[in-house]
Amino acid sequence: MLTIQNLHKAYHTHTVLDQVSLELPQGQVLAVLGRSGCGKTTLLKALAGLLTPDAGSINWAGQSMDAVPPREREMVYLFQEPLLFPHLTVFENIAYGLRVRKEAETHVQQKVAQMLQELELQEHAQKKPAQLSGGQRQRVAFGRAIIFLPRVLLLDEPFASLDAQTRATMQRLFLRLARKYGITALFVTHDVKESLLVGDRFAYMAAGKLQVYTSREAFIADPQTGVRDELAFWSALEQQTPYQP
Amino acid sequence: MTTLGQQLSSKTKPGAGVYLRAFFLLLAVLPVAGGLAYGLAYSFGLAGALSTGFTLQHWQQVWSSGALLHSLAYSLYIGLVAISIATAAALFLALYFQKSLRSGSLSYFLYLPLTIPAMVMGFLVFQLFTKSGLVSRVVYQSGWISDLQQFPSLVHDTLSFGIILAHVLMAVPFLTLLFHAIYREQNLEPLQEVSANLGAGKSYFVRHIAIPTLLKTAAPNLLLYFIFILGSYEIPLLIGSQQHQMVSVLAVQKFQRFNLLDIPQGYAISVAFTLFVLLLLSISFKKLQRHA
């Protein structure tokens, strides 16, 4: 279980995280919906240990993570950009986390081959990142992040820069692998549809405050999430009546 | 665009391309190719005040004396050692003094040596490291040696410590700034965050990601700097040993001797060196392209 209590972060007088608290059981995906600049990225970076919060605590399975450095925290932050290692092949990019952990070569070969198959990238194994499309690069970054089964995966609008079709494919891939490997994840997005698609649990973030909902229905029912507006738009379109927000 | 405009652009574009290419050839290729052709003609006895008609005699003399091969090997030794030490030092500075380089304090100290000409750097090393130089006097005053003559030969020495040091001092600032620029351009800072997030320490990142990325991206520049050292003249002339000569020094000696019959040998050495450099460049760039 991931437990965050009263996390607070401010830059000068501007509060970015305002007493953020949440509990996320193992193997579940929390979809965090919010507009740009609401503090979503800061929350994820604080969890990954890439930023130090001013106050609050982060616990995993009852164990404090506050003093654990990023490289030992096993909470992997997936950036908006794939940020692959440019001189390494797809195979070596995915194998990076395993090599760092000094896993046996046979294990590395076996696990990476399996991951390449999951990601449908077998024929691209020996290519360099520059030879891949945006969607393929994002798949490699995703595979690299989950291959050593981190405690928590932190996804920061990972599919935002992809076209609609590739994005849908990636969402399906994420769901399939998240279920298969029992991944615990915080999935940050500004897309209402995406949040409903990937989340087991739901939260909304605005001005550094995080509101976690008890159910999908409660998330949909809250007007500030914009889900009802979205539904009204599509329903008006279906009935061919003018939409009035 | 109007019909007239379309007609004009369709007429002028290909024409402008041809003129630009011709202008480039005139400025860049023609002087080099012309010089090479003249040097080749001179070395074969086809040009010059004492030309005797086509002969291979000057090339045979250069080849049989072994001076060219010896000086080429010596130049390669200097170039390889100097570029290796300078690269290692520049990598260390670029990787472990990121903040100082960004804030500008270290950049200031790096830009300053870039303005020093090779000849001044040669003099500087000479003043510092001869047996009667500044370092020798400091060592003598501190009691480590009882006589200035006990100070090791670091200038005009057989191992060419002085030449290598002067080149290293000149190359380190340039390479550090180059690596620093590549570090930023290749997003190595966010990549270090990614690496740490995946469980790697700084040294693992430096060995497996930063150094290979920097070296691979800088490879063409490192090669060009290596060639620049190979062909250097002022520094080896000032502080080189009597036994060994770098290629440029050897060629210029042949040109400037009183015996005018040695001049074709100077041209033969220059042409051979140019061909060697062109061969080195073509092989290296082909390899670099294959690995890109």
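The interface with chain A takes residues 186-187, 190-191, 193-201, 204, 208-209, 212-213, 216 of chain B (CB under 8 Å).
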